């Protein structure tokens, strides 16, 4: 017979149609699909037209695979469906044709670029197959790449980047992308945002602690008044409770930035 090899690229989640060669002419007496998946599993499906018994179909393949004459259709294609599909087709006139189809299943990753609490950048490509390639502009010697294989055979790639530069661009390449995915971020702006968030949180925390402590002092003073007939002592001033100087230091990737804030409270005369 004649052997023909073709490559078909499918997408995860879509339907994929494979053909067992062209029309051989005349009546088709039998079709056998021998399938070897990339995970080393295999299955077989056959169709035979017997004159005395009619068409006979056998298959131990996934129920997502349907066979119509010389066409094999895979519904909701998965990464594990990839592999070699060999079809042997018999015709009364032309004899036997052997066709091998190599199915490659691709999954497009979702990409994101974020900043971590330590000031480093994180570029993430999730759910891709094959795994995505991540690079940075400008290049840095402090880049860490982690690859995680997901339960559905896709890959998640995480690249973290540390640099003193102001503007950084993440580049992601994948066979499903027409163009290289890219996104830029201004480190200085992001760092300033994190600084003010931390400063605001520190101010709220210190203020709350001061109010609680002041209220406790008032309660203790009132209790002493009820037990002591001597003239009431002046309640300790708010300045002594909270302190006269509050300094908040925040270190950013761009360098050491020190934000000093003075809160001075005076006792009433």
TrEMBL record:
Q: Give one GO term, molecular function aspect.
A: signaling receptor activity
Family annotation (PROSITE patterns): IG_LIKE
- GO process annotations (BP): regulation of neuroinflammatory response
SMART domains reported in the protein's UniProt record: IG (SM00409)
Instruction: Report the Gene3D superfamilies cross-referenced here.
Output: Immunoglobulins
Entry keyword Nucleus: no
Residue limits of the Ig-like domain?
A: 12-99, 100-188
Where is the chain membrane-spanning? 194-215
Top-level lineage group: Eukaryota
Q: Which residues form a coiled coil?
A: none
Give membrane topology per the record.
Answer: Single-pass membrane protein
Sorted UniProt keywords: Disulfide bond, Glycoprotein, Membrane, Transmembrane, Transmembrane helix
Compartment annotation: Membrane
Which Pfam family, any one, appears in the UniProt record? V-set
Q: Which GO terms describe its cellular component?
A: external side of plasma membrane
The reply on keyword Transmembrane helix is: yes
Family designation: Belongs to the CD200R family.
Q: What is the recorded name of this protein?
A: Ig-like domain-containing protein
Source species, please?
A: Aquarana catesbeiana (American bullfrog)
């Amino acid at each position: 017979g004649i052997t023909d090899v073709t490559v078909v690229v499918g997408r995860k989640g879509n339907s994929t149609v494979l053909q067992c060669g062209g029309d051989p002419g005349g009546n088709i007496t039998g079709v056998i699909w021998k399938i070897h998946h990339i995970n080393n599993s295999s299955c077989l499906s056959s169709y035979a037209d017997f004159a005395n018994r009619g068409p006979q179909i056998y298959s131990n393949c996934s129920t997502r695979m349907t066979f119509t004459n010389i066409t094999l259709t895979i519904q909701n294609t998965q990464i594990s469906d990839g592999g070699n599909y060999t079809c042997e087709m018999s015709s009364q006139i032309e004899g036997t044709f052997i066709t091998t189809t190599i199915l490659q299943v691709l999954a497009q990753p979702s990409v994101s670029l974020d900043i971590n609490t330590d000031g480093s950048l994180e570029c993430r490509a999730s759910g891709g197959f094959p795994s995505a390639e991540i690079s940075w502009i400008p290049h840095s010697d402090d880049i860490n790449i982690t690859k995680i294989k997901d339960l559905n055979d896709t890959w998640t790639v995480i690249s973290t980047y540390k640099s003193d530069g102001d503007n950084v661009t993440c580049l992601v390449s994948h066979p499903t992308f027409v163009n290289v995915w890219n996104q830029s971020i201004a480190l200085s702006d992001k760092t300033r945002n994190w600084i003010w968030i931390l400063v605001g949180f520190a101010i709220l925390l210190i203020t709350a602690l001061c109010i609680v402590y002041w209220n406790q002092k008032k309660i203790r003073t009132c209790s002493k008044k009820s037990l002591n007939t001597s003239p009431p002592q002046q309640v300790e001033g708010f300045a002594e409770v909270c302190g006269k100087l509050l300094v908040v230091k925040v270190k950013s990737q761009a360098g050491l930035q020190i934000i000093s804030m003075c809160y001075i409270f005076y006792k009433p005369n």
